[in-house]
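Fold it.
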Amino acid sequence: MSVPAVPFLDLRSGDDAADVRAAIDRVIASGWFVLGPEVEAFEAEFAAASGARFAVGVGNGTDALTLLLRAADIGPGDEVIVPALTAAFSAMAVLAAGAQPVFADLDPARLTLDPGACEAVITPRTRAIMPVHLYGQAADVPALRALADSHSLLLVEDCCQAHLATCAGVPVGTTSFGGAFSFYPTKNLGALGDGGAVITNDAAVAERLRRLRNGGQRERYQHDEPGLNSRLDELQAAVLRARLPCLAVQTARRRAIAAEYRRTLPAWLPPVAQVDAGHVYHLFPVRSSDRDTLQRHLHAAGIDTLVHYPLALTEQRAFASPTPAPCPVAERAAREVLSLPMRPGLSDADVAAVVEAAHSFQKGRVHA
């Protein structure tokens, strides 16, 4: 039986196409393109959806993290603990704030920041802990918050892959200093370009973020402090407003696809564990000691896959250190993890094709 092609991504508008088009036309007709009513409305709607009092729209997810650190007065001479496996932009945001990222190893089940490994790298210069809710699964927020409190540190959450995710029933980003989100087109809530936001429950932090994103201006031409030019534009805010009402249904579909993968994938291809029911499945990674061969096999069968991420941050030249902390869990995961197709638009037949191709890989090896 021929296997249908299953692309990893399909960023074309689907059921929301008419709403997105209407949102774009509305902004064009208004003649207002930066920091206007669409941004204000989206900030209120996204804050409500995320369980927070405030949301502040910014240019992208990296800027969201950088500005959140800046709002916490973290900068030169400070250290921020970051998990050793994540997108490099998490650590680059720390550098952009003027601080130094320090890498800690992962919980071997979740593949998120391990509280024990995190505690081992705390120094007198440590100012914050930055868990990343990788693949859409929350890190152990209660344990990390307790660790941060015990050392008088801030907890700053990278929620860029975790829209609507919860940890022990509590929305991510709502019990810490704040949470940073990305609306890059591939995210669970994606714009038609770059975009980001910070959520917080602190009115003073939200107000400072609004200044920092706009050159540190208190009002026009009144710059109270150095800031960035990082503003979510009206077009992207309008698109996000059109798509936000669909996010809960799309998240439910992602969870249903994940459940089917977990039920039907071969036992020798274990998915990264679901530790919390609040997982929103931005990605669906599996682990294989023969990852690269498996990827080639799936590609030949018409199944697109991606590797998130092929190098731990401890192995990246951009973060080279003369005395890197050992992070064996992260470094092994970087060699083994493979992301299968995961998007709401996958049909049941698409999911079955992915599973069939995975089973055929092992059969071929047995009979080789």
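The mean pLDDT is 95.
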